[in-house]
Predict the structure.
Amino acid sequence: MIVVKIIGGLGNQLFQYALGRHLAIKNQTDLFLDLRAFDHYYSLHKYALGHFNIKAPVVSKKELQEFSAIKNPYRRFLRKLSNLQSPWRFLKENNDGFSINILNSSGNIYLDGYWQSENYFAGIRPIILEEFKIQSDISDKTKEVKRQMESQNCASIHIRRGDYISNKKTNAVHGTCDLQYYRSAMSKLESLTDIDCYFLFSDDIAWVKENLHSSVKAIYVDHTDASTNYEDLFLMSNCKHHIIANSSFSWWGAWLNDYVNKIVIAPTVWYVDSSKKSAHIIPKGWIKC
């Protein structure tokens, strides 16, 4: 049995699920999702994997009762799992980036981390692509935008602001990609292929309209919000090329794109916090700028 703690925004939730699915397949066992963080202490984002074609159920309180007391679910649960006599292995991510030892783990496993590397699941890419298909209804406007994308050599540009700006703790870890990064990335992309159109995505689209301009036709995707961000992800993945932010959200928009000749431009600096390791985040073949 594999249990994965789900926390963070949609991009992080996808990373967590993808590793859990790979370990479940390798160990020929079942995958379960632990969503208690959203009920007890985490409120910055909402659980969003229910919009996808995922196969893992939520772990029940009954299944966790042998490890945790309801009144203090995390502390006692994790202490139990850390006990060497426990039949469970509690695997918590450290700051060293990708670890092959995680993929070699067996038995009953509880996963706690962000696991931001395709190395954790690249070997089951067809399965991940299938399970990360949208199963919720897509709006007519999103369908219309997708049709626009199909006839053009287009690229998505994702500008992450939101909590990267407003939350001091988040800003100290991630920082933000500045306008010079986007200008350099567009210049690089346009030197590699003839771009017909940019589709711009952001959690602060008004700022983007005012500040980020291009000689190439730009379409601002402004009909979605936080509750329908899975539609943004769907649309990003239907562009042929990508300029991503230092964000797991646009990372997935690019990774889920199956266009064989896609070009992905990513920021050289993923974290402004130098203690955070990012060497394994950007896949081989993506271009750092």
Q: What stands out?
A: The first helix runs from residue 10 to 26. Strands lie at 2-5, 31-34, 88-92, 108-112, 154-159, 197-202, 217-220, 241-243, 264-266, 287-288.
